[in-house]
Automatic annotation (TrEMBL):
Residues 16-305 form the NADP-dependent oxidoreductase domain. SUPFAM superfamilies: NAD(P)-linked oxidoreductase. This is Aldo/keto reductase. The keyword Oxidoreductase applies. PANTHER family: AFLATOXIN B1 ALDEHYDE REDUCTASE, ALDO-KETO REDUCTASE YAKC [NADP(+)]. The keyword Lyase does not apply. Signal peptide: none annotated. It holds the Pfam family Aldo_ket_red.
Amino acid sequence: MSFSTPRRLGGRDHFPLGLGCMGMSDFYGPADEATSIATIHAALDAGVTYFDTGDFYGSGHNEMLLGRALADRRDKAFVAVKFGALRDPAGGFGGFDARPVAIRNFLAMTLKRLRLDHIDLYMPARILADTPIEEVAGAIGDLIKAGWVRHFGLSEAGAGAIAKAHAVTPVAALQIEYGLTSRSIETSGVLAACRERGIPITAYGVLSRGLLGGSRPGGATDFRAHSPRFQGDNLARNVALADALAAAASRFGVTPAQAAIAWVLSRGEDILPLIGARRPERLAEALATVTRDLPPEAIAAFEAAIPNGAVAGDRYAAEQMAMLDSERAPAA
């Protein structure tokens, strides 16, 4: 099984993996800016085209970082931006705003921070009840007509929201957590809703926040220290699953991270995994996956190591889970 097939998204073909830049500015503890920029440049040099950020990652720091890294390479990069989360000076979160007037405000600052004249893919980070998704889709549709945005995307949207948004402004991609430890899109109707409309998926959390690659929380500023999957008995159970994947991976000559990435790549050419590498060597490990040619029994072995539903604990704490439209039961 080959994993080198390009992924079609936003009117162009992409390298089979994208780079998620969040960890270079927030949530996983300190990161070195020079190393982060070197990682982005290494991705560009390897042919990676899709780069994901959010205006609230580091309260704008991540956009400024990516803007500096792309200063003389804009033509090589497809830039995806999530918006809507509100931050305070202490780094906390203060809710979410997706009103049309707020969207235009967010975009104005994003364009300045990224040093760009347009965003390739623009998407609300969450779908909330206080602003109808049709209004969000219409507002971004207006930004597309004005030339400031090229494509409209969604993040963590359920099947109903996908259908409503797509009817107003075509949805170019859905970003959602998907991997061996997070497979709810297969049974919730989300994957089916996307495929029915020809909407590709950009999958994050492929390594389950580093769990499957051997990474563990590094301190109080690492949000995983507060994640259900990294606490108490849950962590012990999940480490055992990670160990099982490592054993299966070794039988086929790949690393556990490469096994997890290969599994997601195997799910369809309409799925583009996002890799949250913060250092060139971790990026190189991930990118090497696409050059491997693994037999179907390898993918089956990786899935057998972490069966669907085997992971212990939700992917976010309860408060954050409640904000995920993708995890809500469909209306009767």
